[in-house]
Amino acid sequence: MKFPKYHNADICKDQILSDNTNKSGIYMWKNLENNKKYIGSSENLRARFLQYFNTNYLLRNTSMYICRALLKYGFPKFSLEILEYCEPSDLLIREKHYWDIFTPEYNIAQDPTAPFSGRKHSEGTKIIMSDAKQGENHPNYGKNLSNETKTKISDTKKGQKRPEGSGRVSQQIEVTDIKNNTINSYASMSEAARALNISQASISIYFKNNKQNPYKGQYTFKKL
Length: 224
Fold this sequence. Notes:
By secondary structure, the protein is of the alpha+beta class. Helices cover 37% and strands 17% of the residues. The longest helix has 12 residues, at 91-102. Mean pLDDT is 78; it is low at 115-122, 135-143 and 160-167.
């Protein structure tokens, strides 16, 4: 099966977002100037790509090589390729599979299943990591999670107290700045609020009251 490849991420932005709505999978950025690569994965590819196309997000995450590279070279110098669409439960294993093939230079860690500094993983994710490492030499490694692993994850989730507010789907929104004639997309209301230096409650009230006038005479919001 062939998966989408976008040879110019800047020109193909709208197509990238449209093609990857409600999909999870593995993707690869490639710098057309030096052929350096970055491989990542997401349960919500459209939301992840919206983050990359948000300059404020890139500026906040300059510790990531890929964010620095996108800022330095610009999207016209990058291609974006979907390596595989897969179930969220298979992301870590499949991501490592492609790391082994491409050895991406922009990835900070050397193993996607290894914990990142300061990054917390759920118990289910830790189980996937552990089973993935144990099964690297197994002939069926990288295909699907075993029934045993799925049972472990299911048992782990049972009885866990869900944090207040968890399970809610982030609302992606589009912000139009009528004074500066710009349009930016954000993966959530909280992200938009941080970028605009306003309260998230202000955006929620805007939608609740179905306001037609721009917020502060400058911003209009639209749910995506």
